[in-house]
Amino acid sequence: MRFETADGIAADKTEVRCRSVRVGVVKDVKLAEDLNSVVVTLELTPDSDGLLRNGTNFWVVRPRVSATDISGLGTLITGAYIELDPGPLDGLEINHFNGAEIPPATNRNIPGRRLKLMANEAGSLTVGSPIFYRGFEVGRIESRTLDRAGSGVSYEAFIQDKYRDLVKKNSRFWNTSGIDISAGADGFKLRTPSFQAMLSGGATFGVGDGIDPSGTAEDGTTFTLFNSENEANEFAFNSTIKVVLLFDQSVRGLVKTAPVEFRGIPIGRVNDISFEYLKEPNDLRIPVLIEIDPKLLRRGAGAALDKMDGDFLSEEVQRGLRATLKIGSILTGSLFVDLDYYKNSQAANLSKVGNYDSIPTISSGFAQLESKFTAILDKIQALPLDDTMKKFGVAADETSITLADSRKALKEIQEATAAARKMMDSSEFANLPKDMKKTLGSLEKSVASMGPDGAIQSDLLRTLEELRAALRSMNAVATSIDEKPNSLIFGRESSGNPIPKAPKARR
Fold first, then answer.
1. For residue 50, what are the contacts with CB-CB under 8 A and spacing of at least 6?
2. What is the pLDDT of residues 112-140, one digit of tens each?
3. Adjacent-strand bridge partners of 355
4. Which is nearest to 234 in space by CA: 207, 262, 268?
5. Strand residue runs (E) in 32-67
6. In DSSP terms, which residues pair with 82 in a beta bridge?
7. What pTM was estimated for this model as a whole?
8. In a domain, 391, yes or no
9. CA-based nearest residue to 201, from 65, 64, 68
């Protein structure tokens, strides 16, 4: 057999063991003809010849210290030895092998589920890195190799036998190495794996929410190893329809694999953003190719599941189905595509862009707000701010003058108030009530002289009585003239009424 080096291997000294049982010894060690390896000749015991068959592995057990494991410490005392892991019982007997420099994480005869994981890049996953299910360690990474074409990295993964049924055909595997910090519509998320996974890397698997497990995976099944749980969940649905959306607004913040949602439920992802889907050079709209799972959209819209996808989309567009861009996170500015029904939208039909169907789009509320804000800024910019500031300066000067005049008037008021207070505190102002009282007494006397008992009123009554007597005499004269106009010349005749005599005086 061949090894890269003969470190720890010595002829007639290094043992060959299987499950810690001695089954042979090294008989010879020499350089290969190409000088790139060493050739080691083994001699097994007669009852161990059946162990040499196709699939048998050899490696040197020596002290090894890594981030994931510490092994072979016993060889510090006993010395290194070669471990033999027998292949399948039905394997063909062979005599030439290539020894491994790194021991496998698990022996082939240990029961369990062995899988293959494919990734775009290695990351921090190494041989011996743990595999978790719901945070519980259920397996390990056994090997890591680069594809011959250099297009990716493949891993051999081992799941313990008691957990083998947890791996489903539609399970998703993702990398949990290091600390995962993500920002989305619901804010920042921080995920930290176990301490071992932070040091040596790790992977985990599971079935996405809302997906029905489709059965247990078989040995040798190949799975894609995603970079994160979010990426794994984004690919958890079955996208069967690709649709082109044409947006009149900027798509800055929209990236490939961005989610496509229907009323908050993920139903697809953004597949591509490119002008290649437009045939007309004068069309300035931004084409976005999305892929969606029509079953999820049908369930959300309450539509029949037996209708053709094209007919279904055409009817839903006529009912008001439109696509728009919405903000997934204000902090990061990330966008996502939202599908929903708009009753007040203009009538439209499902159209074609190249070979793809095209759902009509409408501007998002943020784009409308941005346009309004831009219009407001344009109006502000158009205002004559320079003239206004000059007028404001003149008004400020006039205000300063007015304020100075006001201060002067206030000073005069204060001086007048002080003079009034001085006058009220003087002795002349204190004697003013006495003088007013004397004046009121004189006035009262004057008014009393004109009252009923006053001399003025008595004289006035007497004068009025004399005036009445004079009026009665004039009335009598007027009556006589009226009865006999010549009475003023000839006198008035007697009326014939006897004139009573005056009583005699008593003696």
1. 93
2. 899 999 888 877 788 888 899 988 899 98
3. none
4. 268
5. 38-44, 57-61, 64-65
6. 16, 60
7. 0.47
8. no
9. 68
